[in-house]
Write a structure and sequence with these properties.
The structure is a homotetramer. Chain A has about 325 residues and is α/β, with parallel strands linked by helices. Chain A contains 13 helices and 15 strands. In chain A, β11 and β12 form a beta hairpin. The N and C termini of chain A lie far apart (about 45 Å). The interface between A and B is large, with 44 and 44 residues.
Amino acid sequence: MTKQIEVAMFGAGRIGNIHAGNVARHPGAKLRYVVDVHAPSAEALAAKHGARVASVEEALADKEVGAVVIGSSTDTHADLIKRAAAAGKAIFCEKPVDLDVERARACAKAVKDAGVTCMIGFQRRFDPTFAALKSRLEAGEIGEAEVLIVTSRDPAPPPASYIAHSGGVFKDMLIHDFDIFRWILGGEAVSVHATGGCPGLPEVAAAGDISHAAVTLRTRSGALCQINTSRRSAYGYDQRFEVLGSKGLLQAGNVRPTQVVAWNEHNISSDKPEAFFLERYRDAYALEIAHFFDALVNGTPVRTTIEDGIKALELAELATQSWREGKALECSI
Amino acid sequence: MTKQIEVAMFGAGRIGNIHAGNVARHPGAKLRYVVDVHAPSAEALAAKHGARVASVEEALADKEVGAVVIGSSTDTHADLIKRAAAAGKAIFCEKPVDLDVERARACAKAVKDAGVTCMIGFQRRFDPTFAALKSRLEAGEIGEAEVLIVTSRDPAPPPASYIAHSGGVFKDMLIHDFDIFRWILGGEAVSVHATGGCPGLPEVAAAGDISHAAVTLRTRSGALCQINTSRRSAYGYDQRFEVLGSKGLLQAGNVRPTQVVAWNEHNISSDKPEAFFLERYRDAYALEIAHFFDALVNGTPVRTTIEDGIKALELAELATQSWREGKALECSI
Amino acid sequence: MTKQIEVAMFGAGRIGNIHAGNVARHPGAKLRYVVDVHAPSAEALAAKHGARVASVEEALADKEVGAVVIGSSTDTHADLIKRAAAAGKAIFCEKPVDLDVERARACAKAVKDAGVTCMIGFQRRFDPTFAALKSRLEAGEIGEAEVLIVTSRDPAPPPASYIAHSGGVFKDMLIHDFDIFRWILGGEAVSVHATGGCPGLPEVAAAGDISHAAVTLRTRSGALCQINTSRRSAYGYDQRFEVLGSKGLLQAGNVRPTQVVAWNEHNISSDKPEAFFLERYRDAYALEIAHFFDALVNGTPVRTTIEDGIKALELAELATQSWREGKALECSI
Amino acid sequence: MTKQIEVAMFGAGRIGNIHAGNVARHPGAKLRYVVDVHAPSAEALAAKHGARVASVEEALADKEVGAVVIGSSTDTHADLIKRAAAAGKAIFCEKPVDLDVERARACAKAVKDAGVTCMIGFQRRFDPTFAALKSRLEAGEIGEAEVLIVTSRDPAPPPASYIAHSGGVFKDMLIHDFDIFRWILGGEAVSVHATGGCPGLPEVAAAGDISHAAVTLRTRSGALCQINTSRRSAYGYDQRFEVLGSKGLLQAGNVRPTQVVAWNEHNISSDKPEAFFLERYRDAYALEIAHFFDALVNGTPVRTTIEDGIKALELAELATQSWREGKALECSI
């Protein structure tokens, strides 16, 4: 049996628990440390998987630790990436790298200088439906991709206090969709236009952000992308996209909890989509962690690099600027 | 039995045939004249419905004629509207009023001065699916409308010779979608952004137009609209839209010719959408003509006025300008 | 222009109105007479289409009448068929030929002796969805047909007074489904089993009938058919079937009034099926009448003959017997 | 932490591997022994989960073993149930209890005498879609259940050698569907009719069995059930049912691997169903094992008892007799 990679997990909150469980289930990985500023959370998560609580310093100093998984709050990512890189650890980090592009680039440089693997958690690329669509697109099923339409809606807005420090809707929510744009259309943007508003959600406006956004991107080859997003959706989490190609269309739909269909005197109905990202992307989270450790074990490249994290962040920054200035922007990302 | 309204039909081509058939089937209307510069077409259509061939002058001079239906080529619309208005006839005219906004406004003035009824043929408002969605929206089923996403794709581009004189994709194709925007969101635009390209269709670029377009509109109340269009769709005519409201989502889907579903070793499949507009909007064309004559008989207002025709044209003009200049435009339409 | 076939319509009720309208719209036919024991109904229908009211004798004596359409009550069918045949008229008759197999056979003999065309109104064979499925089946898309599952549910039971004289559920409702069985599996039955009950509808039991039935048929080649029916369906008229073949499955689904889909906090819903047979089979009724007159004009055979009417009736009789005796019956129909 | 229940796993084949994995993942259970006549299989499975290989005798003699999971071949079930009961172990046994009703009843008596828990593996009751439908039915969503239609098709027939010793299609395949009948309609059968054939599969006929079957059941309350099954389905594993109630209809559909929809010049297609039972019922297998150990830990009853196993077997036996004799049978199960 191959030696397992020992892992230090940073962050014992909601997403930390997801990642820790997936690490524990992966035959090539072993959870050694859990690190969190909130001690009870760290202890509970460590106990659940037979791991130990440690400080950042202890975890990074331990030569047995081969990889770190960063699932702590966004403002800690950059620091942890740089320190983990300096310690020679392989890194899996939740998106975003940082809310600031310059700091994110500094992380990328640190990773490059250290020569370590660094994967950013764009889990949507690992969703079975999205991944199957991508494979069929690459196999030429619909010819050249010409238009991408992305719908991305959260069930309900986070508290205003969160929004105020979220970096804004483009960095907080749409960063995933910008990654989908880059992944599916396979080319970089030459123009970005973003607009939006807060219909029915004045508290989001009061926090300096928008709740509803519409983004348009164009690639050098003339392919178009429209993204629509909303921080509120009465029917739950909505995650769909469709790609028009020269020979047809591929759509990636939502996942329903069950396949029950009810017919009554009013209508014919089926389940609404999975409630939120933890349910919708349960498999995707497991598959991205598996991909990371498989890549480490096999010495193959990871699918979503820190460069991908920076490109998506740059698009989010441009979109923010476009929205604020009310202008379409040219770019070369 | 109420006296039937005698009708002069201008245009005996494809759409003229559709309208003439619907006039003939309406109990309140009677097709009296068919007018077309191409005599054999006029004769064939007149014979089919027991009508007579006439010149424009003859038809408009006949006091028995109460209404005209204009389905001739776009460049004849303005002149016919003005002459029919001057003759005191009720007017049904295919969209667009004209490709030039000033000329269209002159028509509106002529109609107003003459005090005649003038309905513009935005038949999509009469499509049973679209109309049912609109009714449910107005009944408050999803609360306030916040986001409208419109998909509008033609099966294949027309000849380059047509495109060169079509007024461009925004006036030729999207004018319908701009009307949908105004009808569904019920407010006027304060900003317009349009972009596009010709992926895979260089002949469209050579004709000075684009084949693929992405338009974003915002209303004063902060509602957003994204329209995506393409002059080519391998799977046929695609006409869908969806409206996100504060309490839910309403989608209007395509119509399939049959309800057969096939399961085989590859997949589970159903029919692709109706082939093109004549099939997709067959019922809508009949219902709009019925609405026009019912309104005349009952003295009630028509649902799509010449003002609607001008507003949609203004949006098409702004979108064209936005695309040409690469800028988002503010407006107050 | 070809001379139109002059038609006498027997029956001015609900289905008579449907057929008369379709006759009036067919370019090869002209409605000359309407015959009904209820004079006001006959007069209203005749006025609507510019026809005259006549007695059975007058209509059949008129040499100008080339065809009759029988849409009067079931108990008049046999007599009218025989008299029309004797008068040399082509005959279109609503199903069933008669509730009594012997009398139906006598009609078939009369038709044969007279050498006239006689089509029975199994309109479902003309439904666009059902007909498309049949064409694809015949084209070999799913190989040999092995299993047919038919679902056939009415929205609500008729009055007990009607049920008592309806001939029972197998002749009144399932006769259409027995025709579907023969049409789709293309072979005759070697065994019939029927059972049923009246869950929740004791008034149907009191009228000596059942409201819910389950029928199983087997053909000589070993193909199987299951039919399930109900006189009550809270969600409206349900008309579906599916055919399993050696290479796949073909399903024929219900038709929905519109393609609106609604998403809300409870579920995702679409329209329930068309309300009842007049809506569901509107196109089918027009197409079967068109087929009848096209066949007369062109001298081609009709698709649903009086023999088909008798075969379906024989199956209904066997099913009734199987249900009453609680036995599976062998047969050779 | 509660003490884990130590488990002996009988059978290390395909289904044994599934169950062993689910036992290993359950926090309340611990896999202690693997027993299989094929030593390499037993060793591989034991090694995978840190368990030990043992003989039946060793495993049952160990006082630490609290439960056994029987996933060995059908002909070993009865003996193992009786021995495990005698040893005082809680029992989870794959369906069927035995192919012989008398031997199955003897097992039930042994279980009762020993006072041990015995759950039979009707995993379909734990399928999320089927279980959700059942809950909604019990909540009264569609009123009283009146008609149940079950479609149950395997992708391809097993080898003739297997079929010859399978007990026939009614015991081998439909036993699951008989359990669905009892579970959903909640009443016992008063009549059973079964028929079938081997269209296109003469090798099944040569093995003394049928490949296609149609079963009709009626309950005392007059509810009806039709089951159709086939040992071959070109499009994969098909597992659907629908329940008509006095107030509506509930359908349980297949599960698709992904939610990709493709539109092209031929049609609009989605994935065919999950390939076979291991994929379709992956969650159900985990949930039934979890239910078993949760019941043991909490002292609550199991949902599918050995009595359920016998009732389903009795229906399978009656259906076999009905088919062989060509008769509808009355019964009181």
